[in-house]
Each structure stands twice: as C-alpha cells, then as structure tokens.
Amino acid sequence: MTAQIIDGKTIAQQVRAEWKVRADALKARGVTPGLAAVIVGNDPASKVYVANKVKACAELGMYSKHIELGSDISEAELLAEIAALNSDPKIHGILVQLPLPKHLDAHKVIEAINPDKDVDGFHEKNVGALVTGETPFPSCTPYGVMVLLEKTGIAIEGKHAVIVGRSNIVGKPMALLLLHKNATVTICTSKTVDLAKHTRDADILVAAVGKANFITGKMVKPGAVVIDVGINRNAEGKLVGDVDFASVKEVAGYITPVPGGVGPMTITMLMANTVRAAERLSGFSK
Ligand code: GUN
Known about the structure:
By secondary structure, the chain is of the alpha/beta class. It has 2 domains: 30-114, Rossmann fold (3-Layer(aba) Sandwich); 140-263, Rossmann fold (3-Layer(aba) Sandwich). It has helices spanning 8-28, 44-59, 75-86, 106-112, 124-132, 140-152, 171-180, 195-199, 245-248, 262-281; strands at residues 4-5, 34-40, 63-69, 93-96, 160-164, 184-188, 204-207, 225-228, 232-233, 239-240, 254-255. The strands form 3 sheets. Strands 1-11-8-7-5-6 form a 6-stranded parallel beta sheet. Strand 2, helix 2 and strand 3 (63-69) form a beta-alpha-beta unit. Helix 2 (44-59) crosses helix 10 (262-281). The radius of gyration is 19 Å and the shape is globular. 45% of the residues are buried. Bound molecules: guanine. Guanine (GUN) binds next to strand 4 and helix 6.
C-alpha cells in the first residue's frame, strides 16, 4: 500500500482564506488583528519560525510586531516588554518563541502574558480551559493537526490515537483535543517500554518526539493515519520529521510530509487564534 499524502500546504491556504474573511470583517469594524512575536537570542531555527509567523500575518492583512531581544536580556527587562504588549491596544496576540535562553524562567514569562492575548495557549488559565474543553486558544500545532484531520475527512470518534511525545507544546494538548473528539488516547514517550507494541495499535499515530526518522514502517499498523510533527535536520542537513517517510508511506493509509504537512498548519492556527483574540478583546465574540 502507498499512503495518501496529506497536503498541509494546500489545506493551510484554504483555512487561511476562511480566517481572512473573519479578519476582514473585524477590519471593517475598525479593528485590525495584531500579533506581537517576541524572540530572545539567536537560535537560527527559531528565527526562521518567527519570520514565517510575521510574514503570514502580513498575508492576512494583519498588524504584526517582531521584537528581537538579545540573549543577555534580563528576566525583568523581558517581563517589562511583555507588560507593555499586554497594555498595547494594537496587539491582540502575544507569542514568546520557545525555547528561551537558560537564565530565563519560561514558566514565569508565559504566566506574565495576559491570558486573553495568549494565542499560543500556554498560560495556565488556558491550559486549564483546554482540560475542560473550553479554551479559546488551543495550542497551534495540535490545533493544526485537528484541522488537518477534519479537512481530510478522517473520523476520530472511537479510534485509538497514540501520541509519541509528552511535551506541553504538542503531546499533552494533542491528547486532550483528540479525547474531546472521543478518541481513545494513549500517550507514549521515547522511553516507553516496547513502544512499537503501542504504535502498532494506533489508528491515528502522532509523532512528536523530536528524533529524526524515529517511527519506522514496522511500528505502524497497515492503513493507519500517521501525523508527523517533528522538524529535525538529518546528518546531511536536510529537514526531516520524526517519521521515516520512505518506510512508513508503504504501510500507512495517510501520512503528512515534512516539510509541507503540519508546519503550515501551525502558523495558520496562530493566525486563527490571533483573529479570535481580537474578536474577543474588541467585544465582538465571547
Ligand atoms: N517553539 C516551538 N513551537 C512553538 C510554538 O508553537 N510556540 C512558541 N511560542 N514557541 C514554540
């Protein structure tokens, strides 16, 4: 069997067009959705991600502010930047790109963001609301995976979803979003004993471990839906996912490529969350 490739780029364009309608409706009422993207330090990969986020804002006709801070910034200075963004009426969404340099307490920084502007959905208030199924801001990558599944017409209810990876950014929120759609959910880590036993039982397998080509064809049930959240560089410097595409595509029913799978959806859902934040802050929605 050769898997059907889920084209994240095309689906992302379609979803962005849907959200542009909402952004334009807000603009017609005098509110331009605005995103502030804060990056601390010089991590090249983070710089590319943030530049892409800012570019996507411009494409949707949104306002954006790209704030680059030196890696030696103090925690107090960073918190002051966030306080200024919290009270800036042109800014509806605030994103602080992670990871932060080691001397900064990421948890403290995230908690300083106004939860009504927390478009990453990382603030404890929004994480709590995610557990009860009421967050206005699902974290962008798992939210993007849910939209990819929906737009591809993949049923979730009653399916066994196995997630490899337990991060706060992807694994845990992914599990909750799938659970809310009545999947049976298993969360594994790269350390899970007999991992393949679990992954081979997955109808929907989400790989989010951050290890190049970690999931191989032998670990996948024939016909399964395989979603690759990984972004890694292999020995030749090529961008690869957590899934060994060549072997898994021969077994799976559906597969997302890297690049061009989940990545474009993450940025799209950041736009969606920013538009929603602007709607809420300007009193046009709950
Ligand atoms: N680093 C990796 N993924 C993300 C993300 O979705 N948001 C932020 N802020 N940082 C990240």
